[in-house]
Specification:
This protein is of the alpha/beta class. The protein is 37% helix and 12% strand. It has two domains: 101 residues, Aspartate Aminotransferase, domain 1 (Alpha-Beta Complex); 227 residues, Aspartate Aminotransferase, domain 2 (3-Layer(aba) Sandwich), CATH 3.40.640. A seven-stranded mixed sheet has the order 2-8-7-6-5-3-4, with helices on both faces. β3, α4 and β4 form a beta-alpha-beta unit. The longest helix has 17 residues. Bound molecules: pyridoxal-5'-phosphate.
Length: 359
């Protein structure tokens, strides 16, 4: 068998590592911020019925415009958005890739603010877009002044904000997004993958869309909707953004099965989102308990917690893995990240942490 280096790989991909959150079979997987709750059976039955209907017509290509799905997404988002304001793809990762294909690419750059979602630089590389790492303020905040300063200094073609931010969990105020939009010449993306876990009535960047045709708000069904395995991400923006993405998407990129499953699930949004309050409560338990064990935390508006005070992250990661608990080392010195699971999973994690802290 040949080595990767034996192949005529693109020069800019040589030496890179792929996205690689460990996929291990453990009893308590708290590493990739999935929803630990399964799909309620009545919802699953409805999804299966919709899938069966789609399979019976699978000899035909699917609706290239995924019209019913976009209508469902607009209904779910509200804010006066219509089908034309929405677009979907196989996970919000594909959404972000399409955005970079259309608005980034060779000779262009995207500004992000590490520590942030690890896929942003990987997607930038894959599309030939230069990744520019902006600086945050203390405690992972980004004030409007800081955002504007970084944009003026680096003149990016795109700006990626993650709000609330992965892997820190911290919120981002809308005035930072407004100021960044005014300072930027290009596209501003707000990745709201975790928006449903924010405190109730927190205003979304969706409220900023009117009159801002360069603003894109991306969302996903992978987290709060408990639909990670289906791969459905989406965005809201000016309808012209969808016109741009039509230039780069593959024809029929959303399979008939994906469309059918997602439309059926959106019809049960209330039932699927019923777990959000419990997950937030488990997150809050960890926010309260971890500092008592000597692991300081910051505010989290997501379904996970980043905790510090870890002398040896690799050793703690391994000690938890021995107890069949998988969490995530996100590369921040002395920190680890853990997803809020079910009450039982969270209790097991906290009990293991108490035991390990006492050693
Ligand atoms: C999990 C996550 C996503 C979701 O990706 P999908 O491709 O929709 O599964 C997007 N952005 C961030 C910041 C995430 O943490």
């Amino acid at each position: 068998m040949a080595e990767l280096d034996d192949l005529p790989l693109r020069d800019d991909l040589r030496g890179l590592s792929p996205y690689g959150a460990p996929q291990k079979h453990v009893r308590i997987p708290l590493n990739v911020n999935e929803n630990s709750h399964g799909i309620p059976e009545p919802v699953a039955r409805d999804v299966v019925t919709a899938l069966a209907g789609a399979v019976l017509q699978a000899n035909r290509y699917p609706d290239r415009e995924f019209t019913a799905l976009r209508e469902g997404l607009a209904d779910y988002l509200g804010h006066g958005l219509t089908r034309d304001n929405t677009w979907a793809a196989n996970g919000s990762n594909e959404i972000l890739q399409q955005v970079l294909q259309a608005f980034g690419g060779p000779g262009r750059s995207v500004l992000g603010f590490p520590p942030t979602y690890s896929m942003y630089p990987i997607l930038a590389r894959g599309t030939g877009t230069t990744w520019v790492a902006g600086k945050r303020d203390a405690d992972y905040a980004i004030t409007p002044e800081t955002a504007v300063r970084e944009i003026v200094a680096t003149e990016p073609d795109l700006v990626f904000f993650c709000s609330p931010n992965n892997p820190t969990g911290t919120p981002l105020a809308l005035d930072t997004i407004e100021a960044a939009y005014d300072a930027a010449r290009g596209i501003v993306v707000v990745d709201e993958a975790y928006a449903e876990f924010a405190p109730p009535d927190t205003p979304s960047a969706l409220t900023l869309l009117p009159g801002r045709e360069r603003l894109i708000v991306s969302r996903t069904m992978s987290k709060a909707f408990a639909f990670a395995g289906v791969r459905l991400g989406y965005l809201a923006a000016d309808p012209a953004v969808a016109d741009a993405l039509r230039l780069v998407r593959l024809p029929y990129h959303l399979s008939a099965l994906t469309q059918a499953a997602a439309v059926a699930a959106l019809g049960h949004a209330d039932e699927l989102l019923a777990t959000v309050a419990d997950i937030a409560a488990q997150r809050d338990r960890m926010l309260a308990e971890l500092p008592r064990l000597g692991f300081p935390t910051r505010e989290s508006w997501t379904n996970f917690v980043l905790f510090g005070g870890v002398a040896d992250p690799a050793a703690l990661f391994d000690a938890l893995l021995e107890r069949d608990i998988l969490i995530r080392d996100v590369g921040i010195p002395n920190h680890l990240r853990v997803t809020a699971g079910t009450e039982v999973e969270t209790s097991a994690f906290l009990a293991a942490m108490a035991e390990l802290a006492a050693q």
